[in-house]
Automatic annotation (TrEMBL):
Annotated SUPFAM superfamilies: OMPA-like
Keyword Signal on entry: yes
Gene3D superfamilies on file: 2.40.160.20
Annotated ranges, domain Outer membrane protein beta-barrel: 10-166
Keywords: Signal
UniProt-recorded name of the protein: Porin family protein
Highest taxon of the lineage: Bacteria
InterPro entries, A to Z: Beta-barrel_OMP, OMP/PagP_B-barrel
Length: 179
């Protein structure tokens, strides 16, 4: 099953890159599709008792087919956070379909996304003088909601809350550049 999950994520990422290469395609409605790339920072909310929440850092890219619908792929990793005389970290890879709703007469928009994500949580700790470690990975349906603001036609900032798997939620702020 793990090979199938990795294959699906690779196909989704490949599709995103292929579609992004067609940035100049016109869809007949006056809108030309638009790719974007960005960075984000935030915090994982891990469902692990006794663990501090690690700081998250990530990159993402997407393609808007029209002003409302698009696709997006992301990678988010973390630093080490304290966990029972040891540390814990997390990372997630995801591919999503996105929907944006632009609020009338403003540069503010709401964003929703749904797709598939693989989340990996690893840690090590010491108990009774013995060093132990664990790892957990989960590939599942994932999604998120957020608010964004278009600084100008090429640069946006977003705040987002995402559920990436059974063990981790993710709260981030980010910025992306359209090209």
């Amino acid at each position: 099953m793990k090979a199938l999950q990795k294959t699906l994520l690779a196909l989704a990422a490949g599709s995103l890159l292929s579609v992004s290469a067609q940035a100049a395609v016109s869809y007949g409605n006056g809108y030309t599709g638009q790719p974007y790339v960005g960075v984000k920072v935030g915090q994982f909310d891990l469902d692990v008792n006794g663990a501090d929440d690690p700081t998250a850092y990530g990159v993402y890219g997407g393609y808007n087919f029209d002003p409302n619908f698009g696709i997006e792929a992301e990678y988010v990793g973390s630093d080490d956070a304290d966990y029972r005389n040891g540390d814990i970290d997390a990372k997630t890879y995801g591919a999503y379909g996105t929907y944006r709703y632009a609020f009338p007469n403003t540069a503010l928009y709401a964003k929703g996304k749904v797709g598939i994500a693989k989340t990996e949580v690893e840690g090590d700790y010491t108990t009774a003088g013995v060093r132990r470690s664990f790892s957990d990975d989960d590939t599942s349906l994932a999604g998120g909601v957020g608010l964004g603001y278009a600084i100008n036609q090429d640069f946006n900032v977003e705040a987002e809350y995402a559920v990436t798997g059974s063990d981790a939620d993710l709260m981030t702020v980010g910025a992306h550049l359209k090209f």
